[in-house]
Design a protein that fits this description.
By secondary structure, this protein is of the alpha+beta class. 44% of the residues lie in helices and 17% in strands. Helix 4 crosses helix 12, helix 9 packs antiparallel against helix 10 and helix 13 crosses helix 16.
Length: 624
């Protein structure tokens, strides 16, 4: 892969500037970037033949409105040649996600999806939700569209197969069955209520079900239920009946369970007034594992084929595609995308656009969902626009804010202190932009809210000034909302003056004198405090933002506190991970006993080598 030098003729712009680049281009495949006068990336594209593609932009006429605007803003271009067009396609999608160009279709929500993990690292495997890299030993089933879809399925699977969901540490320390056993959600292998062989049979049944062989499992359970009934073992027959009922409930909750589609993602696009919604249904093992809607940034004059191609490329950039993609519209480079996805997973991936049959029915259902979701989204966006306009009017802003940052702190008497920042804008809460701040100030007095807020804002503005000093990437706030009154506002204003960013509007939100919600007072630098009408929709909107910041701060604080409660001095010993920590605690009973143990006793612990025993002993007895 090679990068060409930029042309030095900076006085030209638009199609004339692009025309000049043709002198240096050949017919190689590659990726091109179009940049404006401030070197901001306007567009990223790929080409089988760079010279041929760029020559299209050099024409002065014959372009859509969007492309014409893009060409007129182009002041320079950059080129990356690749060995193949497939490589160019993958690079293009990667650069789009990284650079977020103004004129590209952009997938804005690209979170990972949860799976069900049947952990195999233990004699009695655990059934659990898993998100992220698949590093743990076991069998993974998914993806599921949401945590809710996983939780519903896990809930019913526990009823049906009664597998444990407790941690290994909890399993090892139990001396009697937990509540899950009492309510018939677990067979209590931790205290020997079931043999390893019988438990393994239940695990195998659960995996067969998750692999799509649900009919076999239900027939097997039905046979066992009849046999138990014939033997007058009505208690076991009732348990088996409940397991069959639980499996039936999983299937009914899934809604659509196609017979002829074993593994596919059903992807439907609906566009209206320049807005787009893509609905994705996850079909695995002939079962519907949920759906998710996405709202890629598009435009009124972008063809559905371009929107869907961009979505597919960006969506599977960090995800493993299934064996089949069922699309509502054809994409621009079907063969190329098929080849790229197949090479990525080293197996065949098929892309189809069905016209009839069960697959067409799946697309019709997904398209209907996309249309309804987009209608709701557009209605919510209109309401959000009105609220942002109301915020601008209430706080004398020049324009409705595009990015509101709301800050709050949480602690208990100064311990485990954290700061939290949430972000709201035209699309509602931008949760992928939320940030948490572990309060580090050693000189702070415990419970010093002013000092904590100063530290949070100091760190925030330092980062903004370092990463985007010219305020061009959209990460700078148009409005700061601070939880607190005049004192908090004064403390934050001091920080903003120090960093030279006092031009950003900042408002403190404080409860009224009687601490009654609905009587909030708003504080600004150099202005008298004021309140909004109790039934003003803008007041409710501000309350929702403040409550969301408070919720996020409390959740972050609780997570930090829980981690500190579970911490022991063993966490700091080099070479002692979770497994050896459990072994040491099981052998000695407590971390304090480990710290007092002699070298010989440490060497006697299973899994602890002589060298590690010496490390542990040295850690606790250094200088003793």
């Amino acid at each position: 892969m090679t990068e060409s030098p930029e042309n030095p003729l900076e006085s030209l712009t638009g199609h004339a500037r692009i025309q000049d680049y043709l002198k240096t281009l050949d017919g190689s495949p590659g990726v091109y970037r179009m940049l404006d006068a401030q070197a901001r990336v306007l567009y990223v594209g790929k080409a089988r033949n760079l010279r041929a593609r760029v020559s299209n932009y050099a024409r002065p006429a014959g372009h859509t409105g969007r492309i014409a605007r893009m060409i007129s803003e182009t002041a320079s271009m950059m080129f990356l040649t690749t060995k193949t067009e497939t490589e160019a396609l993958l690079l293009e999608q990667n650069l789009i996600k990284q650079l977020k160009p103004k004129y590209n279709v952009l997938l804005r929500d690209d979170k990972s999806f949860p799976n069900i993990l049947v952990s195999k690292a233990h004699e009695f495997p655990r059934l659990q939700k898993h998100r992220g890299a698949k590093k743990e030993k076991g069998a993974y089933y998914g993806p599921f569209a949401s945590a809710g879809a996983v939780n519903r399925t896990l809930n019913q699977l526990q009823k049906a197969f009664m597998l444990r969901d407790c941690s290994d540490a909890s399993f090892e320390t139990r001396t009697r069955p937990c509540l899950q056993y009492q309510i018939k959600r677990c067979t209590a292998p931790c205290v020997g209520k079931i043999s390893a062989e019988d438990y393994a049979a239940s695990v195998a049944d659960a995996e067969r079900y998750l692999s799509g062989r649900s009919t076999d499992i239900q027939e097997k359970l039905a046979g066992e239920m009849q046999a138990a009934s014939a033997e007058m073992n009505f208690e076991r027959a009732a348990v088996l009946r409940d397991r069959i009922r639980a499996l039936t409930q999983v299937q009914s909750a899934q809604g659509i369970n196609p017979r002829g589609v074993a593994e596919a993602d059903v992807i439907a696009l609906y566009m209206e007034n320049g807005q787009a919604c893509v609905q994705v249904f996850f079909i695995r093992a002939n079962q519907n594992w949920g759906n998710r809607d996405f709202y890629p940034r598009a435009g009124a004059d972008i063809a559905p084929s371009e929107v869907l191609q961009a979505f597919v490329g960006q969506f599977y950039d960090t995800k493993e595609p299934p064996r089949q993609l069922i699309l509502s519209h054809g994409i621009e480079d079907t063969d190329l995308m098929t080849q790229a996805l197949s090479e990525k997973v080293r197996r065949k991936v098929e892309i189809v656009v069905p016209q009839r049959g069960e697959k067409a029915e799946l697309i019709a259902g997904a398209t209907r969902n996309a249309r309804e979701s987009l209608g709701r989204k557009m209605s919510e966006s209109a309401t959000q626009a009105k609220l942002l306009a109301g915020v601008a009017a209430a706080f004398d802003l020049d324009a409705p804010p595009e990015r509101i940052e709301v800050y709050d702190n949480s602690h208990i008497q100064g311990t485990n202190a954290v700061g939290a920042m949430i972000v709201a804008g035209p699309d509602g809460f931008a949760k992928n932009s939320y940030r948490k701040f572990n309060i580090k100030g050693d000189s702070l007095t415990p419970g010093d809210d002013f000092g904590m807020m100063k530290e949070v804002l100091t760190r925030r503005f330092k980062r903004l000034l370092k990463e985007d000093p010219d305020r061009e990437n959209g990460h700078w706030p148009d409005l700061l909302l601070i939880d607190g009154g005049a004192g908090q506002v004064s403390a934050v204003a001091e920080i903003m003056r120090e960093f030279g960013v006092e031009d950003i509007p900042m408002v403190g939100v404080a409860k009224g004198v009687d601490r009654d919600q609905g009587k909030e007072e708003f504080h600004r630098v150099g202005a008298r405090a004021f309140a909004l009408r109790r039934n003003d929709p803008v007041l409710y909107f501000i309350q929702r933002m403040r409550d969301e910041a408070h919720r996020f701060a409390i959740g972050t604080h609780r997570a930090k506190r829980a981690k500190s409660v579970g911490a022991t001095p063993l966490d700091d010993v080099p070479g002692v991970g979770a497994t050896r920590k459990r072994a040491l605690l099981a052998h000695f009973g407590s971390a304090k006993a480990v710290s007092r143990a002699n070298l010989a006793d440490l060497k006697a612990v299973d899994g602890v080598s002589d060298a590690l025993a010496e490390t542990i002993y040295g850690f606790f007895h250094e200088g003793g």
